[in-house]
From TrEMBL:
Pfam families: Lip_A_acyltrans. GO terms for cellular component: plasma membrane. GO terms for molecular function: acyltransferase activity. Keywords: Acyltransferase, Cell inner membrane, Cell membrane, Membrane, Transferase. It comes from the Bacteria. One of its GO terms (biological process) is glycolipid biosynthetic process. This is Lipid A biosynthesis lauroyl acyltransferase. Its main location: membrane. It is found in: Cell inner membrane. NCBIfam families: PRK06553.1 (NF005120).
Length: 309
């Protein structure tokens, strides 16, 4: 009897995921019928109205209260609404990637996309070596691996697939067509990334995701657990580590930045300090978020406080 009930529950969940995915795909299909700018502006406006009605908005506001105790509630609400607009744009921009990404390394910053740090991209291309590039969920971070590909860099990117299997399959297909190699964040991901670096390749990682285990660090002055994988890979392969981010600019434009390689903290014995490196990553992401707070995903339970609400 229990087995039968379990099968029914799984079947219902599968159907629910399928129905949700079809609704999402249908809405995105409708967007394709509109001009790019109008479609993206439309979902932005809608998300700013609908987002605050969701349960995730409550979590986002509590995160903002803890991160910005000095701000007024109205200021925090404005950041949250900007976040919903940014998230809606990110989803819609999947549909229009071919129209949006118009950057040509040979022409420079002449279109929708501008790139800062082209000399670093060119050096990594012309002098192949293993390296790690890290980023955060800011702006349209999906554009970064496309930029690397535009400079003929083969980067293996670690990503967390959506929980909905049907959405995950569609997202994976869209990413692979433009973003090079992708590795889902599962139990075998660390081995795949290590092998990539061992073979002289490059690895891309998001470092601001919630992590249940790992190193105890600070983010906005609050305790969080941080994934030590980047520090451990750097310790093993002694490769350069580069920060990179996406910034959403006015009028539907973007700036993609890659910064000079960071100095990895070492302990008294000259070995990589994993905890200090994890903290350094958090400090970099926090600086980015403070500069453009409405472009970060505040509805993630980064500080593991959801159970308190």
């Amino acid at each position: 009897m229990k087995l039968f009930i379990t099968r029914i529950v799984l079947a219902l969940k599968k159907f629910g995921d399928w129905a949700t995915a079809q609704l999402i795909f249908g809405l995105l299909g409708l967007l394709q019928m509109l001009p790019t700018a109008k479609a993206i502006d439309f979902v932005d406006r809608m998300a700013r109205r609908i987002g605050p009605m969701t349960s995730r908005h409550q979590l986002a506001m509590e995160n903002l209260r803890r991160a910005y105790p000095e701000k007024t509630e109205a200021e925090r609400e404005e950041i949250a609404r900007d976040m919903w607009g940014n998230m809606a744009r990110l989803a819609a921009e999947y549909v229009f990637l071919d129209d949006l990404f118009d950057y040509d390394p040979n022409a420079g910053n002449t279109g929708t996309i501008e790139v800062s740090g082209t000399d670093i991209f060119l050096d990594l291309r012309d002098n192949p070596r293993p390296f790690i590039v890290f980023t955060a969920h800011t702006g349209n971070f999906e554009l970064l691996p496309i930029a690397a590909s535009a400079f003929d860099l083969d980067v293996t990117a670690l990503f967390r697939p959506p929980n909905n299997r049907y959405v995950a399959e569609r997202v994976m297909k869209a990413r692979q067509s433009r973003m090079g190699k992708l590795v889902a964040s599962n139990s075998g991901a660390a081995w795949t990334l290590a092998r990539t670096l061992e073979e002289g390749g490059a690895v891309g990682m998001l470092v601001d995701q919630k992590f249940h285990k790992g190193v105890t660090t600070q983010f906005f002055g609050l305790p969080v657990k941080t994934n030590p994988l980047l520090a451990k890979l750097q310790r093993q392969y002694d490769c350069e580590v580069y920060p990179a981010r996406s910034i959403r600019l006015p009028n539907g434009r973007f700036r993609l930045e890659i910064e000079p390689a960071v100095t990895i903290p070492k302990d008294a014995n000259g070995n990589v300090d994993v905890a200090a490196t994890a903290q350094m990553l958090n400090d970099k992401v926090e600086a980015w978020v403070r500069e453009y707070p409405g472009q970060w995903q505040w509805f993630h339970d980064r500080w593991a406080i959801k159970h308190e609400l």
